[in-house]
Structure formats: C-alpha cells, structure tokens
Amino acid sequence: MADKNVNEEVSIITHLIEIEKQASQIITVANVKGDKMISEAKMAADAQFKKLYQEKSEMLQKDFEEKKAQIDLQYSKEMEEYKESVYKQNQDKEKFNSVMDNLLFG
After folding, report:
1. What number is the average pLDDT over the span 74-98?
2. Alpha carbon separation from 85 to 70, 89, 92, 96 (Å, rounded)
3. Which residue has the higher pLDDT, 24 or 96?
4. Element (H or E) spanning 106, and its range?
5. Where is 92: in which H helix or E strand?
6. CA–CA separation, 60 vs 64, rounded Å?
7. Tell me, what's the pLDDT at 47?
8. pLDDT at 1 over 70
9. DSSP of the chain
10. Distances (CA, A) of 74 to 19, 83, 84
11. Which residues neighbour 77 within 8 Å (Cβ) at sequence distance 6 or greater?
12. Span of 26-30, 32-36, 82-86, 87-91 with lowest mean pLDDT
C-alpha cells in the first residue's frame, strides 16, 4: 500500500511538473509573439511618422518658397518704384555741391 501511495505521489508530481513545463512553454511563445507584435507596431508607427513628417516638411518647404517668391517680387517692384521716384526728383547739383563744400571745407 505504501508503494501505491508513493507511486501515486510520484505520478501526481510528475504530472504537475509536465503541466508546469507546458505553462512555461505557453508563456515563452506568448512572450515571443508579444515581442514580435510590439516590434511590428513600432516599425509601422515609425514608418507612418516618417511619411507624415516628410509630407509636412514638403508642404512647408513649398509654402516657404511660394511666399519667398511673392516677397521677392514685391521687393523688386517697390525697389524699382523707389529708384524711379529718386530719378524723377529735381536734382540741384550746384546746391548739393555747395552744401558739401560748406560741410567739408568750412
């Protein structure tokens, strides 16, 4: 009878050890799958971020270039208008020379 109890206990312990090994294997597989899912999700998020960043960057660059072109055009126009207004003004060279002589040579 003692042998029967010992055999039952050994059988129960062996069965529990097998269940524990199976549980460990299940956890290992779950960890590997979880790590793979996390890695794939991170790669997808990084790719999405890079795509959106690139699109936004290109949009801002295009907007900058368009506004710069408008400002350059406006600047050129205003500079030409200013030059024309200066050239159209009556230039009294004698008076200018007289003022400069007085300032420089007293």
Report:
1. 91
2. 23, 6, 15, 18
3. 24
4. none
5. none
6. 6
7. 98
8. no
9. -HHHHHHHHHHHHHHHHHHHHHHHHHHHHHHHHHHHHHHHHHHHHHHHHHHHHHHHHHHHHHHHHHHHHHHHHHHHHHHHHHHHHHHHS---HHHHHHHHHHHHH-
10. 81, 14, 15
11. none
12. 87-91
State both tokens at 78: 């205003």
CA distance 63 to 71: 12
Measured CA distances, 99 to 89, 92, 93, 95 (Å): 18, 11, 10, 6
Q: What is the pTM of this model?
A: 0.55
- Report residue 96 as tokens: 């200018």
Rg (alpha carbons) of the chain, rounded to whole number: 44
Classify residue 89 by its DSSP letter.
S
Please, what is the Cα angle at 55 between 51 and 58, to 5 degrees?
A: 135
Distance CA(80)–CA(84), nearest Å, equals 6
Per-residue pLDDT band for 45 (boundaries 50, 70, 90) equals very high
**Is 2 a residue whose pLDDT tops 70?**
no
For the chain, the 3-state helix, strand and coil shares in percent, each to the nearest 5, are 95, 0, 5
